Every structure is written in C-alpha cells, then in structure tokens.
Amino acid sequence: MRRTTMLPLVIACAIVPVTGVVRADAPTTQAPQALRDRAAKLEADAAADRATAEKGRKTAVLARKTATEKAAAAAKLRAQLATIGDPKAKAKAQADADALDKEAARNEDDAVQAEAAAATLERRAKKLENEAKRLRKQAAALDASK
C-alpha cells in the first residue's frame, strides 16, 4: 500500500476542523429550526466521519494482514538460505527477504497510521454528535419558552 492512498484519510483527520460549531457558552439568537438544521448537518458530518473511520479500520486490517504475509514469506526465504549452495542465488534470496521485511514494516506503519486516523475521526464524530445533541436541546428549550 502506498502512502498516497492514506492521504485522504490523513487530510480528513488532520486538516478538516470542526467548522461552525457554536460554543456551549455562546448565547444564541437563532431560531429553533435553524438550530435543528445545524444539528442535522452535524449529525450527517458525524455519520460521514464514522464511515470514513470504518474504511480506515478496514484499510488497517488489510495492511496488517499484508504485513504478516510478507514477514512470513521473508522468514520462509531466510529458512531456505542454508540449503542454497550458489552464492549468487543465496545473495538474491537474502536481498528478496530483506525487501519483503522492508515492505512488511512499511505496511505495518500504514496500518498504524490508518488506525490512528480512524480513531481521530471517531473522536471528531463523537464531538459532532454531542454538539448536535446540545443544539437540539437548545432548540427544544427555545420552543418551550415561546
């Protein structure tokens, strides 16, 4: 897996801030319907974040599986090194095993990054859902005060 495939997930986690969220201590003069609309948008954003996080988790599982397979292949090659008599073939097998280990390490790093990005998206989704819940309560309170 290339690092460029992780770019959208990393951008979603690192760059996209929670935009337009009204602070809990900020007074509001918005209509209840506007608050409900904003809450619905926040809930939709949270759902999108959760879906992206799920994709990230699946990517991490796949990357980890690939890393395990490559590490096993490298170990198998290294086990066969003792039986190889030709120095050129032995050097080639050693180089192949080293390359597989390097790819396995890269895949494991990708898995860790994908899991971290997914966790970040989950936290953001939770914050968005909590903010949406707060906005809905605020809208209900405004309705009750009328």
Could you list some keywords that capture this structure?
mainly alpha
Describe this structure in words.
This protein is an all-alpha fold and 146 residues long. The chain has one domain. It contains 3 helices and no strands. The chain has helices spanning 7-14, 32-80, 87-145. Helix 1 runs parallel beside helix 3 and helix 2 packs antiparallel against helix 3. The longest helix is centred in the last third of the chain and has 59 residues, at 87-145. The N and C termini lie far apart (57 Å). The model is unreliable at 18-25 (pLDDT under 50).
Work out the helix count: 3
* Number of E-state strands: 0
Multimerization status: single chain
Taken from the alpha-carbon principal axes, the silhouette is: rod-shaped
The overall pLDDT, averaged over residues, is 87
**Low-confidence spans:** 18-25
Task: Supply Rg.
Answer: 25 Å
* Count of spatially separate domains: 1
Task: Give the CA-CA distance, first to last residue.
Answer: 57 Å
Quickly describe the structure.
By secondary structure, the chain is mainly α.
